[in-house]
Write a structure and sequence with these properties.
- With 378 residues, the protein is of the alpha/beta class.
- It has 2 domains: 128 residues, Aspartate Aminotransferase, domain 1, CATH 3.90.1150.10; 228 residues, Type I PLP-dependent aspartate aminotransferase-like (Major domain) (Aspartate Aminotransferase, domain 2, 3-Layer(aba) Sandwich).
- 38% of the residues lie in helices and 14% in strands.
- It has 10 helices and 12 strands.
- The chain has a 7-stranded mixed sheet, sandwiched between helices.
- Helix 7 packs across helix 8 and helix 8 packs parallel to helix 10.
- The structure holds pyridoxal-5'-phosphate (PLP).
- The site of pyridoxal-5'-phosphate has 12 residues, from helix 3.
Length: 378
């Protein structure tokens, strides 16, 4: 059979997703949210972040998250600029007291571990790692922060959040990177002290902001370190961020559109049934992909343990006889965007976001489109 150039493959329009955005972040922003931003723009965009319209929006963001996560009394939503990557530095200065433990099972979980390892004011962290595609268990230890990732976006592994056996918040805070999980995966606040994230994934907004849901034990830790003589840059000072958040402000200027779009997404989720409803959407969409892969002779879920398979980021290995790069090129030529695997993982793989904003009908259309592309390339 003559070799077809991937870019020349035409997916019949009846098979194609209506919206072809499947990136894991920045991810699909709902058109309704963008329309609402345009409508609000004349009295919102370009106005002072120290005045009521913007402060009220930050207040709605904080209150909306408390509702979405059903947070108990005493929990607080803290926010600042710089996204999750900056929060690792913020936590290194203002949340870890002496020593942290890190579960490392992919690109993102490794980065926080590196940040604490390089900090001169902290003892070397305890690292427990596991190969990509799996996840380690936390182990009770003499650390004061247990750090892990709810959903490892680089590999498509999601873990159930639980304190290390026999520990309580008084012994060690559980700090969870929930960047690609927050708003799409269920969790129990009793098992966590600091659930931090950025809004460009399940919250279907844009990047540049970090948000952290903090338990009373985490707030107490933040305030204790903030009152100590440990040096920390003001822009990375978690105590400064906490004080500003309580005023519905950030230490310096936030991206107003990012705040607005996050509120749109959180209100949409809360109005429809909250986290359970949102997580169910992702359950449904991801099951469509895993079931499709299980039935396809050329496609295999990368995460072999079904209990660890993420419902918000689906990673699928493609048979070596077909280049995943060719699949990606054919998809992109047909407006199906960003389904490439995580580069550093180096596998012949596709990776698809099934965040709550992404329609199951589009995920189903994606499987039909992939059937067409794989058929044309084989
Ligand atoms: C995307 C992502 C990050 C990085 O977020 P930024 O806001 O770009 O810094 C960190 N952790 C996880 C799990 C992610 O998915």
């Amino acid at each position: 059979m003559p070799m077809t150039s991937p870019r020349d493959i035409v997916i019949p329009s009846a098979l194609r997703p209506r919206d072809g955005r499947f990136n894991c972040g920045p991810s699909l922003v709902r058109p309704e949210a963008v329309a609402a931003l345009v409508a609000a723009a004349p009295t919102y965009l370009g106005t002072s972040h120290r005045q009521a319209p913007v402060k009220d929006m930050v207040g709605r963001l904080r209150a909306g998250l408390v509702e979405l996560f059903s947070l108990p009394n005493g929990w607080e939503i803290v926010l600042g600029n710089g996204g999750t990557t900056v929060f690792w530095d913020v936590a290194t200065f203002g949340l870890v007291d002496r020593r942290s433990q890190h579960l490392v099972f992919g690109e993102f979980s490794g980065k926080f571990a590196t940040a604490t390892a390089e900090a001169p004011h902290l003892a070397d962290p305890e690292i427990i790692d596991a190969p990509p595609g799996s996840a380690p268990e936390p182990v009770a230890s003499d650390v004061d922060v247990y750090a892990l990732t709810h959903n490892e976006t680089s590999t498509g592994v999601a873990v159930r959040l639980a304190r290390p056996a026999g520990t309580s918040a008084a012994e060690g805070l559980v700090a969870v990177d929930a960047t690609s999980a927050a708003g799409g995966l269920r969790w129990d606040p009793a098992q966590v002290d600091c659930y931090y994230f950025a809004p460009q994934k399940c919250l279907a907004s844009d990047g540049g902001l970090w948000l952290a849901a903090c338990s009373p034990a985490a707030v107490e830790r933040i305030e204790r370190i903030a009152a100590s003589d440990r040096w920390r840059p003001a822009s990375l000072d978690l105590g400064v961020a906490l004080a500003n958040s309580r005023q519905n402000q950030t230490y310096n200027t936030p991206a107003l559109a990012t705040v607005f779009l996050a509120v749109q997404q959180i209100d949409w989720m809360n109005a429809n049934g909250g986290l359970e409803w949102a997580a169910s959407r992702s359950d449904h969409s991801s099951a469509l992909l895993y079931d499709w892969a299980d039935a396809h002779e050329l496609v295999t879920p990368f995460v072999s343990d079904p209990a660890l398979r993420s419902s918000v980021v689906v990673t699928l290995d493609i048979d070596e006889s077909i280049s995943a790069d060719d699949v990606l090129a054919a998809c992109r030529a047909n407006d199906i965007l960003d389904i490439g695997g995580y580069r550093k993982l180096g596998r012949n793989q596709i990776r698809v976001a099934t965040f709550p904003a992404i329609d199951a009908a589009d995920v189903e259309a994606l499987t039909e489109s992939l059937d067409h592309v794989l058929g044309a390339l084989r």
